[in-house]
Structure formats: structure tokens, C-alpha cells
Amino acid sequence: MKNRYSIFSLARNALSHHEKWDRAWRSPEPQPAYDVIIIGAGGHGLATAYYLAKEHGITNVAVVEKGWLGGGNTARNTTIVRSNYLYDESAHLFEKSLKLWEGLSQELNYNVMFSQRGVYNLGHTLQEMRDIHRRVNANRLNGIDSEVVDARQIKQEVPIINTSPDARYPILGASLQRRAGTARHDGVAWGYARAADARGVDIIENCEVTNILRDGGRVTGVETTRGTIKAKKVGIVVAGHSGVLADMAGFRLPVESHPLQALVSEPVKPVLDTVIMSNAVHGYISQSDKGELVIGAGIDSYNGYGQRGSFNIIEETIAAIKEMFPMFSRMRMLRHWGGIVDTTPDATPIIGKTPVDNLFINCGWGTGGFKATPGSGWVFAHTLATGEPHPINAPFSLDRYTTGYLVDEHGAAGVAH
Amino acid sequence: MFQIDCPWCGPRDQSEFAYAGEGGIKRPEDPSALTDAEWADYLFMRQNPRGRHHEQWRHVHGCGQFFDVVRQTVTYRIESVDLPGRPALANASGEVR
Ligand SMILES: Cc1cc2nc3c(=O)[nH]c(=O)nc-3n(C[C@H](O)[C@H](O)[C@H](O)COP(=O)(O)OP(=O)(O)OC[C@H]3O[C@@H](n4cnc5c(N)ncnc54)[C@H](O)[C@@H]3O)c2cc1C
Ligand SMILES: [Zn+2]
């Protein structure tokens, strides 16, 4: 990399009051044609471009983005990263991703602030505890660190949590993955953008794809607000807008787009050094390095592209958080926002071929794709480069809805992040 | 957050209703005659438009009835509410895009 970030570059730039840093990536004009076009500069699209260049030597690549890079769900999520999924197919995909996370800051020479602070998935009923035992055992068989903890141990490790048996939904125990945690969401997009750009990838912002050009069932390029761009292969990585892009290419997806919200509180002193998730009462919480409580809500049930959700969802989420952490009852919430998540019937992504030749899609991550950013980019780059899925993403084909080979992760992931 | 004008009870808060998915999807007359791909198309594939959407709602905390709605998915503005299977704005094929 031309300008490596290090303690020395930091000191050197301090001398010029940090006013002389180079731009982290170029802002090129679109070329008439590329080997590969990736639509969507979220974390997944940028990671795909980076691994295409790094792992497969394909650098004549454009990532086209209708807004600014990392302005979609990538910068709107609650950043929970874990790999303790129930089924083998998902476990392999998310664990590949977690392994990449573990070396990512070094690899990209960019601090993505990956913090392995652990994630607890709480159980509030006997049935939930049985499911937790099953999932933890499945994780261990797949070589993924995972443990069951009881309410006493949770209280010991997270003293501010309410484990009283008198709670409306008492906490009986949890699954705990200690290698799980959080990361800096923008940092991930910026790190991949900078590293992909350094390898020659063109990242073209403010460039909306308005049509997908085809010739006899084969993709030939895209129409954009900045002109026509030809390509040998095209990858769609647009999260909430997947249905819109599929429609441009003449096929349908088993995907619905829903509003999903999150909110942060005023910053306070460190009180919570891990991540707590509860499916039953439906709230997720961690504390950012700035001290804000980062709180995730549930999706609105209806289809929506408005990047905003309903007030009653926020109300329910806050009620759940207050139930688990009574001491937060007087915290003030500072900001709140929404994203558009692309959910599938089996709560599992679609990564692979489409009915159009040389057109590939990576979507359906729903409420939980941030954690998969590195792994998703890695397998999708393989798929674009070779024209065939990697064994890790082969089970996530679009035609599993025809063959019936669903990967039904609702229990383990459907509503969780 | 919006209100829905239930055909039976009148305007109520959206939180009184349950969303019941895309509207106007007809169950095939003879399911066993379909190919796997046609069945998958019926069962799983959706329009999911950014814009005008024909959908179903159920007034779960009221009369309990299902009905059809045409709603904008960006502004969330409701264009019409009608009895099941009769969306006011459907075109001849029953498809609203
Ligand atoms: C509130 C919230 C909380 C979440 N919490 C978590 C969590 O804790 N953990 C977790 O793992 N996941 C979480 N997720 C899910 C996660 O954010 C997504 O699955 C993931 O970010 C999707 O990655 P992406 O790069 O594909 O999406 P995006 O960042 O949305 O990227 C898609 C890009 O495509 C662009 N685009 C769309 N249409 C076009 C077009 N026509 N032309 C060009 N560009 C286009 C968009 O502008 C956008 O930048 C959460 C999501 C939300 C909204
Ligand atoms: Zn009613």
C-alpha cells in the first residue's frame, strides 16, 4: 500500500496538524467497460472487490454506488459479530467470516476496531434453554467456541443485568460466544474501500444503476445515472434494494424489504463490556467506545423502503431493555434511525447465480449481515471470478427455493442480529 | 407509523393490524400439475416493489378481518383499502406494480 498507516505516519502528520493526509481512495470517472461491475458499495460490495483483486488478481473492477460508500445498512447497523449459528451450512459461512475478522485490521492496515467482547444470547423459557443447548452443541461439533451459562454466571459477569426470578420474563441462562463481539461499521467500509482502491479497483459514488443490460440471456453491462458501463460480469450487492435490481434484470426473488431501526443513548461511563441479545423480549444492547448504549430493535412487519420504522417498535424495544437493565430507565436517547433489510423466508442469505448468465447476486442478509461482511465478500469474489460458487456458499443458491433445500435459521438468527 | 382505514371499523393505528404479505396471489387451481419452479414461484417469489404495493392486512386487535390495501412503500401513504381480492387500483391481471 502506497501510504501505510502506522505510528510513524501518525507522528509525521501531527507535525502538519493532520491537514496533509492523502485521500484514502480516488474518485475516478467511470471507464466505458470493466471485467467486473459490483453494484452497491456497502461493506459486502467493497469486500467483494477487495478479495477479487487480492485473491483472484482481477483488478479491472468497478464498484458503483448510488449514494456514498457505506451509507446503507453498513453504517446503520448495531455491529454485532458472531458465528454461533445452528446449521452446518451457516456455521461454516459465519465462522469463515469470523476468522477473517480476527486478522482484518492487520490485513487492511486499517483499524476496524474489532472487539471480541463476547455475545450472550439470553434464554427466558425452558424451551429457549433447550434450543440454546442444542445450538451450543452444534457449534462445538463445528469447532466453534460456544458455551451455556446459567443465570448466576451471567449476573457475575454482567452485574447490572436483572436476573431476578420475579422479572416478567426471567433470565434462565444464555449461550455465550467469547470470540464474538463488535466492530466499527464505517471503519470496515472505509478499510475495504481503501485497500481495494490501492489494488486498482474504481469506486464510483453518486452513480445509480437504473437498468441491467442483457443480450440473449447474458448480462452485458449496466445503465447508470453517469452513463452506460459495459462489463463481462456483474454482481448485485444492494441489500434492501435487491428486489428493485432483480426486477431490472427480469427475475423475482424470495425477498421482502423491511424497515429495521436502531438507537443510541447519551454517552455514559463504561457499564457494559459485552453484548447482550434477547430474542424473547426482543432487545439487543452493547456500549460503544464513546460510551453510548447502542440498542437494536425489531423489524416492522410491513414492506418498506422509507429507512424509518414505527414508533411502537422503539417503545417495545426500550421496554425490553428496561426490563433487563432497570438502571437504564432514565437514560436519554440521542439519535435513532432506520435501514432497509432484505429478509428471506428461511432467514438465510442468497449468494450465487441468477437466471441471467454472468449476473450474480449476494442478498437476503436481512437483519444480520454485518458480521458476515468479510466472509460474504470472500465467497462472492470466488463466485464472480470462477463463475461457480465456493463450497461454502454453494448451499446458499437461489434455486434452493425450488429444490426445497432451505437453510432454516429462524430459530438461531431469524430475529437476531 | 400510519393509520389504516379498516373497511369494517374505520381508521385505526397501524399497530392494531397485522401485516399479511403481498396481496392478489392466487393459489394455483391444480398444485400437483405445477413444476417445482412454478410452485417455488407461487410459494416464495415476491414483487417487493419500491413504490406502489398491493398487500393484505388483518385487523387483529379489532374485527379480525382480512382486507386488501394499496400502499406506497417509500412514503408509506395508503392509496386505497378494499375488501379481499378487490383492490380498487388493481389492473386487469390483478397485479399492482
Ligand atoms: C438497524 C440495523 C441493525 C443491524 N444490526 C446488525 C448487527 O448487529 N449485526 C449484523 O451482523 N447485521 C446487522 N444488520 C444487518 C446489516 O447491516 C446488513 O445485513 C449488511 O450491512 C448488508 O450489507 P451490504 O453491504 O450489502 O448493505 P448496504 O450497506 O446497505 O449496501 C448496499 C448499497 O447498495 C446501494 N444501492 C442500492 N441500490 C443501488 C443502485 N440502484 N445502484 C447503485 N447502488 C445501489 C445502496 O446505496 C447501499 O450503499 C443491521 C441492519 C440494520 C438496518
Ligand atoms: Zn376492523
TrEMBL record, chain A:
- In the UniProt record, does the keyword rRNA-binding occur? no
PROSITE patterns registered for this protein in UniProt: RHODANESE_3
Q: Which residues form the Rhodanese domain?
A: 36-80
Give its E.C. classification number.
Answer: 1.5.3.24
| Pfam families hit by this protein | DAO
Citing just one GO molecular function, the answer is: nucleotide binding
Q: Could you tell me where this protein is found in the cell?
A: Cytoplasm
The species is: Salinisphaera hydrothermalis (strain C41B8)
Kindly state a single biological-process term from the GO annotations of this entry. tetrahydrofolate metabolic process
This protein is called what? Sarcosine oxidase subunit beta
Identify one Gene Ontology CC term for this UniProt entry.
cytoplasm
NCBIfam families membership: soxB
Task: Give the cofactors, semicolon-separated.
Answer: FMN; FAD
Annotated family = Belongs to the SoxB family.
Which keywords describe this protein according to UniProt? Cytoplasm, FAD, Flavoprotein, FMN, Nucleotide-binding, Oxidoreductase
Query: Per the record, what are the reactions this protein catalyses?
Result: sarcosine + O2 + H2O = formaldehyde + glycine + H2O2; sarcosine + (6S)-5,6,7,8-tetrahydrofolate + O2 = (6R)-5,10-methylene-5,6,7,8-tetrahydrofolate + glycine + H2O2
User: What is the enzyme's main class?
Assistant: oxidoreductase
Gene3D superfamilies, per this entry? D-Amino Acid Oxidase, subunit A, domain 2, FAD/NAD(P)-binding domain
From TrEMBL, chain B:
Q: Name one GO molecular function term.
A: sarcosine oxidase activity
Identify the stretch annotated as signal peptide in this record: none
This protein's source sits in the domain of life called Bacteria
Tell me the Gene Ontology biological-process terms attached to this UniProt entry.
tetrahydrofolate metabolic process
> Which InterPro entries did the record assign?
SoxD, SoxD_sf
Chain coiled-coil ranges: none
- What this protein is called in its record is Sarcosine oxidase subunit delta
Originating species: Salinisphaera hydrothermalis (strain C41B8)
Q: Taxonomy-wise, where does this protein's organism fall, top ranks first?
A: Bacteria, Pseudomonadati, Pseudomonadota, Gammaproteobacteria, Salinisphaerales
